[in-house]
Each structure stands twice: as structure tokens, then as C-alpha cells.
Design brief:
2 strands; mainly alpha; two-stranded antiparallel ribbon; 70% helix
Length: 141
């Protein structure tokens, strides 16, 4: 999962063509992607441990990734407000600004990962709820 995300991110970053030189490189998105990659690695290692503590750590890491995407979306909305538009289609040259699914500088891999992590988090929360209610039921008997 971690490798697929890294490969997809590199493919999206390299799609700007040659020479791809920016006068000002905003590294905030790169730092955010790095934090997401580290959280993915934590999820993989903690689920690999097959222990309840590892499972709980993976829930925290998945929640962190979802929150990073929330911050990314809010940052995109702030950026669009600063540009004086409501959406990417209203920009003078919409294709000039890389975006996908309403996220500035996002690739299809980012959107796929958001869907996957959301599904993973829902599954994890259902398992935790089932464990909690199952433990409660067994103590009543």
C-alpha cells in the first residue's frame, strides 16, 4: 500500500513535463504527503503485528491520514479564496494549476488513497465496536 502510493505520487509529480522548474516551490504539500506516507507505514507495520495494540495504533494512524486530507481540503479552499475564485474551473487557465477531486496539487492516487483509508477506518471502527460490545456481553453472562 505504501509503495503503491509512493509510485503514484512520483508519477503525478513527474507529469509536469520537462523542464519542470518552478520559480517558487511550496513544500507544504510535500511535507503533508510525507506525513501521510509515514502514517501508511505505521498502519502496515501495526496491522502486521496482529495484536490489539497494533490494531488501535492503525486506527489512530488512519484517523491522522483522514485529518490530513481534511486540512488539505481546507487549505485548497483558502488558496481558491486568495485567488478570488470559487472553483478551479473559474481560474483564468484552469489546466495551469494541478488539481484532482477538488484538492490542489492532488493526483488520482491521492483520491484513491482517501477512499481506501476511509473504507479501512470504517472497517476498523466496526471491528472495535464489535469487540467492545462482545466483551460487554460476555461479562454480563
Amino acid at each position: 500500500m505504501f509503495e503503491a502510493y509512493s509510485v503514484g505520487y512520483d508519477a503525478g509529480r513527474g507529469s509536469c513535463g520537462y523542464p519542470c522548474v518552478a520559480s517558487h516551490q511550496d513544500v507544504s504539500h510535500d511535507v503533508m504527503r510525507f506525513k501521510i506516507e509515514v502514517a501508511l507505514l505505521v498502519i502496515c507495520l501495526s496491522l502486521w503485528s496482529k495484536k490489539l495494540l497494533g490494531f488501535c495504533i492503525s486506527v489512530v494512524a488512519a484517523t491522522f491520514i483522514i485529518s490530513q486530507y481534511g486540512v488539505w481540503y481546507l487549505d485548497t479552499q483558502r488558496w481558491l479564496r486568495e485567488m478570488g475564485v470559487k472553483s478551479f474551473s473559474k481560474l483564468p487557465v484552469p489546466g495551469e494549476w494541478p488539481h484532482f477531486a477538488g484538492f490542489y496539487r492532488a493526483t488520482p492516487w491521492d483520491f484513491f488513497l482517501l477512499l481506501f483509508i476511509t473504507a479501512l477506518l470504517i472497517w476498523q471502527l466496526r471491528v472495535l465496536i464489535a469487540l467492545a460490545t462482545g466483551v460487554r456481553r460476555s461479562t454480563r453472562l
